[in-house]
Amino acid sequence: MSSSAKSRTRGTARSSRSAAPRAARPRLVVGAERFTGNAIVGQSGGPTVVINQSLVGVVLEARRHKEIGKVFGARHGVAGILKDDLLDLSRESAAQLEAVALTPAAALGSVRKKPTRDECLAMFATFRKRKVRFLFYIGGNDSAETANILLECAREQQHPLRVFHVPKTIDNDLRVTDHCPGYGSAAKFVAQAFQGDDQDNRSLKGIKVNVIMGRHAGFLTAAAVLGRRLKDDGPHLVYVPEVVFDEQRFVADVLAVNERLGRCLIAVSEGVHGADGVTIAEKIAARAERDAHGNVQLSGSGALGDHLAGLIKAALPKGRVRADTFGYLQRSFAGCVSATDAREARLVGQAAVRYALKHDSGTVVLQRAKGRAYQCTAALTELSNVAKFTKTMERAWINAAGNDITPAFVKYAAPLAGELPRMTRLKGLR
Amino acid sequence: MSSSAKSRTRGTARSSRSAAPRAARPRLVVGAERFTGNAIVGQSGGPTVVINQSLVGVVLEARRHKEIGKVFGARHGVAGILKDDLLDLSRESAAQLEAVALTPAAALGSVRKKPTRDECLAMFATFRKRKVRFLFYIGGNDSAETANILLECAREQQHPLRVFHVPKTIDNDLRVTDHCPGYGSAAKFVAQAFQGDDQDNRSLKGIKVNVIMGRHAGFLTAAAVLGRRLKDDGPHLVYVPEVVFDEQRFVADVLAVNERLGRCLIAVSEGVHGADGVTIAEKIAARAERDAHGNVQLSGSGALGDHLAGLIKAALPKGRVRADTFGYLQRSFAGCVSATDAREARLVGQAAVRYALKHDSGTVVLQRAKGRAYQCTAALTELSNVAKFTKTMERAWINAAGNDITPAFVKYAAPLAGELPRMTRLKGLR
After folding, report:
1. Residue A171 a catalytic site member
2. Which is catalytic among the residues B84, B88, B118, B171?
3. Does residue B395 register a pLDDT over 50?
4. H or E element: which one contains B147?
5. Which pTM does this prediction carry?
6. Assembly ipTM
């Protein structure tokens, strides 16, 4: 473990996977005057199926500590704080909250908004009116940035506000933390989708392209391989944004697999891009706008998959080629939840409250214990270590050819997705 | 119950939902010479997540009867029979078969093929060589037609072949039967997808179009409503192929819901079509071919959703509009299985074997018992009652405006999809 990693986080000792720009330790407030007040919790960014676990973790943990009075829920994150559109979560029973925890997406409503300085100042009117001295903000790196802006504003205004970011994102692209709550369940969805689609593709043969969410990082696309067991199980090719995407190379890869197996199942990230860094999806959208007649429109979500299927069809005119774009089901499908993910999403919410009793601010992160059995504990790092930045996959998790995922990634991600259904073939076919 | 319905089916007494063209009763062979021989079982058409339950139902039931010797599995349906590409399923242990039953898609491989007369004659070479006198063919209405062609050919050739069609289709569009194995699990998938997506749409607002499989019948699209509980739960609009689709009317419907709720979740069948009967998807594909430059291609699976999203964006330029096409996940997603569906898929396979001991041919159908508690039993009808024809939704299951589904449909379909996750809102939001 590097000393720089050590200095970045508090809690159980373990190095994080990626470097952070600053090594500042979260400000510890010990022996200060007793800090009490009400709390606001908000949800922000693209929802996940376990983001309500974090919400409920915050609320139920806050109730256990006398330092925290009421817990208000902000409707649609900072938008609700701005408008004083708050729910009194003290009126929710534990049973009701537990049921909400099992419901996908943001029960408080979410938002995609980076507040301006004026809006930040306006939010302090709500904090004063509601006697709020604790803010818990659940979201990804944009939400961490929002929390950080509010923290800096509070310091400048000398408003006694403790600000904690609670991580969530199906993209799994937050720094410092081993992984992000929300990712495990989305990975489970993608893995199960590929398990079934591989059987489907085996049944009727052909070439199938599936487009997976994740603009900048390939973690979710890579989860497509988690259900592979036998040698010719799909996906047979995986393309992540960490590797430059070449259309000719892609088609050649597909034809080679199809030649060998008589079929090919492919996972492609929506964020694949050429050497210029512009995503293929953006290029298609731009071209479609130029070409548009009447209602023809290519910038919707199915365009990349259809485009890639078109490339293959052009090279293999008689082939059966299909494309699916998994879309929003990856982050919202009801009933596909990783038990580990649900538990950890709850944990980071609870931990944020416990840290808030002694610390000024920070982002809760997960640290994986060394050893064979998977175990993660919560730790704390500076907001500025997580805000804005994006973590991508390690190069060692992608094969040398840049078109598949290595066993090292499976070792990392399998415990996060949890148990998968078992696919079995007839003995005569093994 | 009408007498015509009675004369069409054997087994427990119950009328089927749609009229059949012929009322011929399956030929009963009683007191004839003892009929013994080997069996072939094949899978055909688009797979489902429970089609292997039917396969295993056939195999395990066949083992219980001394009249049936070996059970061969045809690789890729009639294609395997033609090429004598068969697996000896006697070599599969019961434990292995039970594990295969839990695996999505066709374990034997599937096929989309209507055999010619010459091919049928060629298949009798395999039947003779393998001493096959029982054929079980699992599939939809095209597969029933294939089975019927083989039956007629056998009679003409005076080859002693008993031919049984075992129903499956996620489209639920077979006649006579109350519903089709495979539909319940696909309906469960669609319902759960909408449950989660409704929460997601509630979180971040906006307009969301989801395109569902089913070219000619709206059963699967209608399943989108099965998870609705509270008044403003989505989907708010549902479009099935049974009603003529008007793009202007569609946009007006969406704008009205969006005006009222600030959001709108929409289920659209891939088979929606104008008054001329041509599907919107086909029209887009035709236009795209005319307009194509370079690799631009619109005939892939995401095109209809993107087109509809484009119509809404044109009318609401500042709106957040998204489209997803659920695609093949609907018929293959691993781990989303209706327990009722799995049980019934097994049942129709078992029943086909039992009928084959006393009857010449037929299609196994499911009949729903009257009374409050859901219960279905197997019955038998003529192949020609099911082959080729398509059943569509009852008009009473679609609202008068043609843009939503009625409670009568929910009563019909809810027991088929089985238990769904429970979505809960914060008390302050109810």
Report:
1. yes
2. B171
3. yes
4. helix B141-157
5. 0.93
6. 0.92
